[in-house]
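Journal club prep — side note

Before the paper discussion, L.F. wants everyone to see what a predicted structure for a comparable chain looks like in token form. Sequence:
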Amino acid sequence: MEQEPVGARRRLGAELRRLRGNAGLKLEDAARGLGCSTSKISRLENGKAVPRIAEVDALLALYGGVADVEADMLHRLVAQSRTRGWWEPFTEGLRTDRYVLPAPGRYTAVETDATGIDAFDLSVLHGLLQTPEYARAVLRARLPGHDDWEIDQLVHLRRRRHEALTGTPPLRFRSVIDESVLARGSGGPEVMAEQLDLLLELSRLPNVILLVLPFSTGVHRAHTGRLAVLEIPDELGSDLVHTEGHAGETFLDSPGDLETYRAVLADVRGLALEPDASRAVIAGYRDRYRSASRHGA
């Protein structure tokens, strides 16, 4: 199966880094041999730059060459890394310079490579869990300066992302949802009732675990912001931590960062309600919103 471009770039980068290490060369040696900056070599190895065949061939020659079958594999990765991701039609023309949220394609690209996600949601539900109308309400609140067509594009993007939960194989998804997310009536009672109906439906999928962190637990170190640990297959690179806040988004992949954030998520899961009790809390909020909607509140 052909890889998405970001996954192909990450795997190619990992292979180039391995070959450089086997050749006993430093970043500076590779940059000098290619006639470029060390930052460019670093970006190629981290999967952040779009490579060219000529650059890869020059590096392979510098590293002592590889077997034909391996060179063919690396060339395929170069070709795949230069294709368009499935999400790109949804992000064309969006004015990322005006975003309060991170640029929309970056996280989606990494999420596409992931086999599992472990998340903590503090202010709004994770994009994989959102109904179109809930997503529209959240995006409109966070992006007040954007046109309706831009909001529509981002809503469509989130709808496509949902397919990962029911794909083959399905994405493994586990989220601890702060109770404040349920209490915050994003979009109004009717939108929230529909949203919580979807949460209850998704919570019964075998690959989805949704836990509620009740108000009674007080403040936890996870309350510094929303975060997720994404499990990335070994052939595509390392697992990643994704955090998001007013300063933008951050991707972390050092062993220390992964250990820290996995510990934070483990702690907050230990305080959260069990799945059945969480469903009961979600259903209680759903019923309240439905009642409020009927009475025009």
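L.F.'s comment for the group: The beta strands are 116-121, 172-178, 208-213, 226-231, 240-245, 248-252. Keep this in mind when we get to the figures.
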